[in-house]
Amino acid sequence: MDLNATYHDLNGKSVFITGGGSGIGASLTEGFLRQGAKVAFVGRSDASEFVDEMEQKTGNRPFFIQCDITDIPALQDAIAKSADQNGPITVLVNNAANDKRHATEDVTEDFWDWSMAINLKAYFFACQAVVGGMRDAGGGSIINFSSISYMMGNAGYPAYTTANSGINGMTRSLAREFGPDRIRVNALAPGWVLTQKQLDMWADPASLAAHLDRQCLKDHLVPEDIVGTTLFMASNASRMMTGQAMVVDGGVVVTG
Predict the structure, then answer these.
(1) Are 66 and 22 in contact (CB under 8 A)?
(2) Model-wide pTM > 0.90
(3) CATH number at residue 56
(4) Backbone phi, then psi, for 249, in 5-degree steps?
(5) Cross-strand bridge partners of residue 27
(6) Pairing between β-strand 38-43 and β-strand 140-145 as defined by DSSP bridges
(7) Which residue range is the domain that position 71 belongs to?
(8) Cα atoms found within 13 Å of the Cα of residue 64, Cβ hemisphere only
(9) Local structure of residue 164 (DSSP, 8 states)
(10) What is the pLDDT of residues 100-126, one digit of tens each?
């Protein structure tokens, strides 16, 4: 991974990432490790090999706890253990999500609840779990991953886009609530990032060509493209930025 900037204040910071062992999350974990941060992350699948790989590549070993983030007590416990291991968490990255495709007429109450649990509910309770430690530490940065999907009005996953929009509303309210404690809360909305999951499940040639045609920049996004913006939002370089939604999508949507 080639990083174009070093944020010296991230060296030694205690960082917690949900879904930090695969996809975009794995690149985020590596990016923070390369800044010298103390990174803890959770994921549903065993990430022991990834932890060893990161230590070998960066010289900095992350702390991993296997956890389903829809199990809120388990998520809260993982956050507490990570704070014990690395010190009070001052950077939280809510990254884990699931964009499973579905049609409105096929959605059951159980599916709706599951989608909200992984794509919105877990975000809120992770934020709740870190604010006390951030307040005691004198501040912190929370980065909630959303998506441009709801901005585009995409069909094919209405529960997911509903949660994405909800993340923005939650982000703005928490930024207002915890700003006096110097806790910044921002959202990051990537475009179509070609993780291995996306390539395996949905990135057929026609869809890729159609999406690229909508981008101003004619390169497909890869996970590493999201890392630099996340590091900036976590660092003091963005110390007066809060309640905002940053878009990294190659120029598909226009904000402002």
Answers:
(1) no
(2) yes
(3) 3.40.50.720
(4) -140, 10
(5) none
(6) unpaired
(7) 8-192+226-247
(8) 24
(9) H
(10) 999 999 999 999 999 999 999 999 999
